[in-house]
Amino acid sequence: MSVFSPAELDRRACGVLLPIFSLPSPHGIGALSREAYEFVDFLAAAGQSYWQILPLGPTSYGDSPYQSFSTFAGNPYFIDLDSLTEESLLTREEVDALPERNAWSIDYATLYRTREPVLRSAFHRSGLSEESTDPPKEMLRESFAQFTEDNQAWLADYALFMALKKAHNGRAWSEWEEPLRLREPEAMEQARTRYRDEITFVSFQQYLFHRQWKALKSYANNHGITIIGDIPIYVAYDSADTWGNPHLFQLDENRIPIAVAGCPPDAFSRTGQLWGNPLYRWGAHRETGYEWWMRRIRHSYENVDVLRIDHFRGFEGYYSIPWGEPTAEHGHWEPGPGVDFFRFIADVIGSCPVIAEDLGFLTPEVHHMREQTGYPGMKVLQFAFGTGSESTYLPHNYERNTVVYTGTHDNDTTRSWYEGLTGRDRIYADDYIGLSREQTPSAWPFIRMAMRSVADTAIIPMQDYLDLNGEARINEPSTTGNNWTWRMEPGAADEALAQRMRRLAEVTGR
Questions:
Q1: Is 494 a catalytic residue?
Q2: d(C-alpha 484, C-alpha 21), whole Å
């Protein structure tokens, strides 16, 4: 019996995958700015129903949104600086003095160096800082106080965590002195007093982010656009979540991981994938009624309308790699909480719109768990052309309760992927879609195939609608240094493209 009634996803509709950081903007990274509102207008004009984004959290080393300092916090880089000038929190000169950056690539090192000082200027001008010489802005003070009260359950730990990281020159909490690492009460109270102003600054950034995000989400919803967000199954070791809740994770008495997450060796990775995230003590979560998870999911639904649960198979069984192993080769499988976890969500929170990221090698038990939940699974066309007509990723094998993608943030762009197909795979793809060998490579035949499929929901990465090559790839798993940097060029989402997308949505009944 299904534990989920997919009220949001049981209609035939389509949408676009584009991370916030990939939006165009004049300040080095996509933001909750005028350009974000214009993209919502573009989606509405293009006949789209969904905007899928990636996790919104503050990124740590490596810049991945899947390795965040907090599962609850928002990324301060996304704060729209131009609107702060309109509130007299920043001057035009301060914003214009930020270094110009390449319009289609993010330089995180420059952001790290330049963004905090300008936000600190806004903080001082707000009157909330102990060092401020400006008179307090009373309405801002009141709404800030309400925000901190409403979010105390996660904000207190996060703000202290970030203040302590700054005091320790960015070092991981596992390297702090023992009283703070182990959260001894006296040390914690002393830190709250000593770093009170820095804690308020961190909270102020979260206030700005969440206020701006709620306004953008409301605008999107009012224009018929539903937001699909991502909730990673795991959190980062160096995060406020792990530091603040050590009893919920597989840590030893010194708060060092006993085992960490990853994936076993397969055809794509000879040594597997060593993610390094701490694993959960599922028994401890169950004893608390999954209280931390319930807070996390409720908070997620305050920010988005539909949740894509990343690594869904990890709830049935998770891969455990002993701490200190250099690769994922010597891990083993452990049982997860199973479908009872999702029944608990349905009982406590109610019917929640969810997409299950059920990609990769799946056991019959994982298939059964997804069927029991009723959640729609994912199909990726780039995975379809390698195993013949029996491939579950080929459209003729779909069921309606499915979300089809040409590719995801972890795939190459479809045009680049297709150009790289060789031999039997290329011949099969051409024959399946009806392409001639001489046809210029393009993502559009695959977009049309996804849109024509029986799947209720079709989500297409913006890079594919723009028919871009591999330089527009978002992420290449198991690599570092060149990921999470692609940005859409200003003016790329134009009226002609919107009309083409709308027409395709109309003729395919979406």
A1: no
A2: 8
Q: Which of 357, 358, 412, 456 is catalytic?
A: 357
Q: Is 310 a catalytic residue?
A: yes
**Rounded-to-integer distance, Cα 69 and Cα 276, Å:** 14
Q: How confident is the model at residue 102 (pLDDT cuts 50, 70, 90)?
A: low
Q: Which position among 35, 157, 310, 358 bears the catalytic label? A: 310
Q: How far are the Cα atoms of 71, 196, 276, 361, 391 from residue 266, in angstroms, in the given order?
A: 29, 49, 18, 9, 18
Answer whether 378's CB lies under 8 Å from 455's CB: no
In angstroms, the CA 158 to CA 170 distance is 14
Q: Please check the confidence at residue 318 and state whether its pLDDT lies above 60.
A: yes
| Active-site residue, selected from the candidate residues 10, 41, 325, 410 | 410
* Whole-number pLDDT of residue 101: 64
Q: Alpha helix (H) ranges present in 12-98?
A: 34-45, 81-86, 92-96
In single-letter form, the type of residue at position 493 comes to: A
Mapped onto helix, strand or coil, the DSSP state of residue 444 is helix
Alpha helices in 268-326 (DSSP H): 282-287, 291-303
410 belongs to the catalytic site: yes
Scanning the structure block, which residue is given the tokens 């959960």? 280
* CA gap 238, 275 in Å, rounded: 13
Flag whether the pTM goes above 0.85. yes
Residue 474: which of 102, 227, 104, 226 has the closest Cα?
A: 104
CATH of domain 13-507: 3.20.20.80
